[in-house]
Amino acid sequence: MLLWSRRSKSAILAIFAVVVLVVFVAPLGTVLLASLAGAWNGPLPSDLNLAHFDDALSGENLDTISVSLQTAYLAGAIALVVGTWAALVARESPRWLSRVIDAVFHLPIAVPSVAVGLGLLIAFNSRPFLLGGTKWIVILAHATLVLAFAFSSVSAALERLDPAYTQIAESLGAGPVRVLIRVTVPLLLPALGAAAGLAVALSMGELGATIMVYPATWKTLPVTIFALSDRGQTFQASACTTILLLLTLLSLLALGRIRGRAAVR
Q: Domain range for residue 151?
């Protein structure tokens, strides 16, 4: 239903603002205040300081930040390469096979992430594919979970891609590989940038499957946050959560700039 009057539009905007404030701004603001709090015995925290951030950026906590970044970018890169390849194969396949590929690559988001983690832990816990107890099983779990989003982004971009570009290149004598490298991939760069940003953001916050598979030497920041909150160290957990949000935002901004430059080209 269309709302044309100024009063109705103002009411809709007000409701939208309240929903955003309650659902997004208030929880994030509470986390930020808790990360700065020395104590919280009243409506607002007291003794605001940066001590919790000093702890979050030192020792084992600093190692988990590095682990999260490495895991997110490696898993995102793997998901982007495999998802792009699968999307290209599905595009050139018969309709029935394309549907099978689509279903297979969306399967990880149709089941709980804990089930994915447990499945990987069982499947890769013996030779010759022994990944249990190593960082690679964590990276594989993250790549599996974000693969569907990379595949979907590239598939959607391929559907909007004008086939005339490839047809013209082929008519000029370009082979399939040359068409892929010089025509298709450059046209997909904005979509690839968006897929990479989404994959990294989702990987940075992944917890369910990570808890099932991570070794003690490769603990991500969400696992640390969960452990801190479980021990009742809410303020410290809030500081780590704030850092996680900032790192995710900076990663998205960096990948967004790459995507913007690709779109301009």
A: 18-36+46-264
